[in-house]
Design goal:
The protein is α/β, with parallel strands linked by helices. 39% of the residues lie in helices and 16% in strands. Strand 10, helix 10 and strand 11 form a beta-alpha-beta unit. The termini are far apart.
Length: 352
Amino acid sequence: MERILIVRLGAMGDVIHGLPAVAALGRAFPAATIGWVIEPRWQELLCASGSPRTGPRDDSRPLVDGVHLLDTRTLRKTPASPAAWRAARAELAEVRAARYEVALDLQGLLKSALVAKLSGARRRLGFASPRERAATVFYTRGVAAQGTHVIERYLSLVAAFTGTEAGSPPAAALPRDPRAEAWCESELQRLGISRFALLNPGAGWNAKIWPAQRHGEVARALAEDGLRSLVNVGPGEESLGHEVVNASRGAAEVVSPTLGQLIALTRRARLFVGGDCGPLHLAAALGVPVVALFGPTDPARNGPFGTRSDVLRSAASRTSYAHAARADRGLLAISSRQAIAAARRLLESPRA
């Protein structure tokens, strides 16, 4: 097998969950050319900003030989835009020109299966029971997913393709961006911080958000132990971050990094505290100890994987992946005292 395409367009946590499977694929076929179709906003999970998107793998693009950017998000928002359709057609033409022999759809949606079909790959593998049943129309082979966690399920798809046992997931390297690393060092120097915890109050939907006041209380307790806190906020989360800082009484600082800068920053963190979100899965992938605050989503399926962690979830939470706007009752039952105790347990470990 010489040319293999991965289709996983987003989102952040889901792309990160796919990294071990692609690392396993590279281990099984070390001479193969591996490409990945992804939404532009997540490309820094595969390729450092400003680096070539194709060519031999290196620290700036450690897992794949080609990164193909397909902006389906803009197509959904502005379906009548001629420019968006021209860009999509051009990118798909680039994918077809790469002459991939097989495509693996990790996403299991109709759109991702269609991308696999349009890639020109004659063999197209996906899950036998994907998230959207119609996706199977575009597969040449459906694979029964094995395992509970998303990472295990992705690995089982690759194992079915390679004809090997899934085994333990290999380490999945993330890109190193020299400019992001330099920004990180400069920012920490500006703030006068060397040891820090990374707090992430935001999440994909409201039911997964733990109160900002409690994040601030965690920051205050960590400061008593000599550990400052940085509060990571994404676009539109600025007010949430400032709520945490106000509640911390000066024990925390807001940072709003790019994705590449967040990777560099997370590498240096002593601890991560947050809910089910992309930055949590980034911390786990980088081996950072994680205090995971779970509500409606199931930590057995979506929890931190491959790192030391303490997962807090109330019995009052019921598993649901509906994007509910109302705060989860079980998540609200988790106290700041519980989170502080979990953080201290992880920090007291000899491996911290």
